[in-house]
Design brief:
alpha+beta; four-stranded antiparallel sheet
Length: 190
């Protein structure tokens, strides 16, 4: 044990911990009463949106907004179910052929590691942004022959049912070169 004096706050804390330990040693109901908190209204749990079962994918501007050689597309996700559901994190995005084969690498994503939970009432919308780096799509840069994508395929929060949207962008045919990035996690609104 140290010879340092015990501060008044530490002394009060030790006294409180000692009283709590004594109450728990004497009686389990007394211990339960000491640890219970006043009842507070709890928020109902919200189911995760199940992709194609609950959501509709819409691109409000199919031409995108081009800034410094990068084209940005807003991806809107609308809750089409009759109950509230939630989305969080980044969607998994890739370009696909007419027959469903993936073109090139899947989209990268932003650096935010903690993403908010976005709760969607029926009819409500969340969005994210997809950046397309067209200059990276070139047969000279190791991405294989350049192909034209048929659709954008999007998975939400690890769900197995994908969402699709027509997207005729030039794409790498081989994996390796990342030419798509989801720049932000889901945000509320369109």
């Amino acid at each position: 044990m140290s010879n340092l004096p015990i501060r008044p706050m530490t002394s009060r804390l030790l006294t409180a911990v000692g009283a709590f330990a004594a109450a728990c040693a004497i009686s389990v109901p007394a211990c339960a009463a000491a640890t219970s908190t006043p009842s507070s209204p709890s928020r109902p749990s919200t189911a995760t949106c199940t992709g194609a079962g609950d959501l509709r994918l819409h691109l409000p501007n199919t031409r995108g907004s081009k800034i410094a050689g990068i084209t940005y597309y807003t991806l809107d996700f609308t809750n089409t179910s009759s109950s509230t559901c939630s989305v969080s994190g980044y969607p998994y995005v890739s370009m696909i052929t007419r027959h469903g084969g993936q073109l090139g690498s899947a989209a990268g994503h932003g650096l935010m590691t903690i993403a908010p939970l976005v709760v969607l009432a029926p009819g409500a919308t969340a969005h994210t942004t997809l950046a397309y780096y067209g200059a990276r799509v070139s047969s000279r840069r190791g991405c294989g022959p350049v192909a034209t994508a048929y659709q954008l395929r999007v998975y939400v929060a690890g769900q197995k049912r994908a969402l699709y949207s027509s997207m005729g962008l030039h794409s790498c045919s081989h994996a390796g070169q990342v030419y798509l990035t989801v720049t932000q996690p889901f945000k509320r609104g369109s």
